[in-house]
Amino acid sequence: MSTYTDLHLLTELEPVVEDNINRHLGVAKDWHPHDYVPWDEGRNFAALGGADWELAQSPLSEVARVAMITNLLTEDNLPSYHRTIAENFSLDGAWGTWVGRWTAEENRHSIAMRDYLLVTRSVDPVKLERDRMAHLELGVEAPEEYGGVLDQVVYVTIQELATRISHRQTARVCDEPIADALLKRIATDENLHMIFYRNLTAAALEIAPDQVLKSIVKVTTNFVMPGEGKPDFRRNGVLMVKHGIYDLRQHLDDVLRPIFKVWGLFDRTDVSAAGEQYRDELGRHLEKLEADVVRFEESRARAVERERAREARRSA
Question: Where is the signal peptide (predicted)?
Answer without folding.
Answer: none
